[in-house]
Amino acid sequence: MNKGQRLLKQAKKILPGGNQLLSKRAEMFAPNLWPTYFLKAKGCEIWDLENKKYLDFAGMGVTACLLGYANEYVNKKVKLAIDKANLTTLNSEDEIKLAKKLINIHRWAEMVKFCKSGGEACLVAIRLARSYIDKQNIAFCGYHGWHDWYLSANLNNTGNLDKQLLPGLKALGVNKNFAKTMFPFFYNDISSLKKILVKKNNIGIIIMEPMKFSKPKKNFLKKVRSLANKNNLILIFDEITSGFHNNYGGLHLTLGVNPDLAIFGKAMGNGYPISAIIGKKKIMNKANETFISSTMWTEQIGFVAANATLEFFKKA
Ligand SMILES: Cc1ncc(COP(=O)(O)O)c(C=O)c1O
Fold first, then answer.
1. Distance in angstroms (rounded) separating the CA atoms of residues 37 and 58
2. Ligand 1 centre distance from Cα of residue 120 (Å)
3. φ, ψ at 263 (rounded to 5°)
4. Which residues line ligand 1 at a C-beta cut-off of 6 Å?
5. What total of structural domains would you count in the chain?
6. Residue 67 domain-assigned?
7. 38 forms bridges with which residues in the sheet?
8. Global pTM?
9. Taking a C-beta distance cutoff of 8 angstroms, is the pair 238, 252 a contact?
């Protein structure tokens, strides 16, 4: 048994599941063999606890570290920021700098709200959308995080999430009153969306990734946009995985369809915790009326790392 596996055995006694992220579980890759823990990583290379070097074939930190591990340009800026202090009572000007960059890239967006993880940003986006619109139910396509509104899709039909990314998710611990608030549809299948947009479903929000495994066919995205317009729905693009991977910004820029809100995470900070919701002022400003707040949302490493990452992308 390798050192990583021995450590994982100990971890499972004190950390439920051994580690915190479903898609990093050793059991998903090579049970009993997976190195599990890293000593160091640089570029696309990673060393396990026995100092054995691997090429990272498992997605560069679940697609977050697009510039490679320990990118010198990003790390230099982060180190400088840490030495000046990270979280203080005052704000970091890097927050505004990053907001301006995102609005500049996505000219349809007027405001930005930052948080730390992708799932958290999806939670915020849905709160803002539900604060703005009377119709509270959600049409969704794809994976959007671990939280109650997403998992509640499996309350009335335990298979609702099966074809979206992760089969077999249990809605354990989710308030049963949330049942029948989430309605799945499928990518490139406009009829699956039309079918659920009926009055009794009370759908006010569509959330989806602009692209997942295949390109939009037969004007799929344009048709989603026009259904949203026709039915007065808020359209949210979850760009947590697609953003900054193929182009400088959200993939929707390349695909030629703008949402009302878009969500970014992962590659935007090259592995440092930062996520963002960008969107139309009338919806974003609902953040002043509902209650959304976290002490850690203003720590500055995330902003500094994202500004550096975006500068690096732009130069590349
Ligand atoms: C499209 C999409 N939305 C949301 C999430 C959740 O993001 P996070 O794992 O940072 O909470 C992911 C993560 O894989 C994702 O791919």
1. 13
2. 9
3. -120, 135
4. 62, 117-119, 122, 142-145, 209, 238, 240-241, 265
5. 2
6. no
7. 48
8. 0.97
9. no
Helix-, strand-, coil-residue percentages of the chain, each rounded to 5: 40, 15, 45
Q: How far, in Å, is the centroid of ligand 1 from the Cα of 256? A: 23
Considering the domain architecture, whether residues 241 and 93 belong to the same structural domain is answered as yes
Instruction: Give the DSSP H or E segment for 130.
Output: helix 118-132
How far is residue 40's CA from residue 241's CA, in Å, rounded to a whole number? 24
Q: Is residue 155 part of a domain?
A: yes
| Tokens linked to 304 | 């500094």
The reply to whether 121 and 261 lie within a common domain is: yes
Per-residue pLDDT tens digits for 246-279: 999 999 999 999 999 999 999 999 999 999 999 9
What's the pLDDT tens digit per position in 206-260? 999 999 889 999 999 999 999 999 999 999 999 999 999 999 999 999 999 999 9
Dig out the tokens for 134 from the structure: 């009377």
Compute, in angstroms, the gap from residue 247 CA to the centroid of ligand 1: 19
DSSP letter (8 states) at residue 69: B
* Residues 135, 41 share a domain: no
Return the residue whose CA atom lies nearest to atom 14 of ligand 1.
Answer: 241
H or E element that contains 261: strand 261-264
CB count, 10 Å around CB of 132? 21
